[in-house]
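Blinded run. Sample ID left blank on purpose so nobody reads anything into the name before looking at the predicted structure. Input follows.
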Amino acid sequence: VQLQASGGGLVQTGGSLRLSCTTSGIIFSVTPMGWFRRRPGNERELVARIYRDGTALYGDSVRGRFTISRNNAKSAVDLQMSSLKPEDSAVYYCNTLPPDSPWGRGTLVTVSS
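Blinded prediction complete.
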């Protein structure tokens, strides 16, 4: 199993970024997927998840600002992030749910104030 997140970068407060995660080695179309993040000094947390039928759920801190989507044909899951805040700065990862696949390197998002 390989999970590769990309799309991070430096953005100003209020800006937007779109993260992408490509996968291999899993039956993606039936696998629930999640986007996680690890902020400095904090544990890794689940911020958004999407199920095989497209149902999406969000953490309280990102609801209304982030949108998770999946492309079964490409075995990929995206995270559209808008109205970004400095507290969204973190390394973002994708993983299966439950997160029992090897963690990839993640992608760094830095939101400047």
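Unblinding after everyone has recorded impressions. The radius of gyration is 13 Å.
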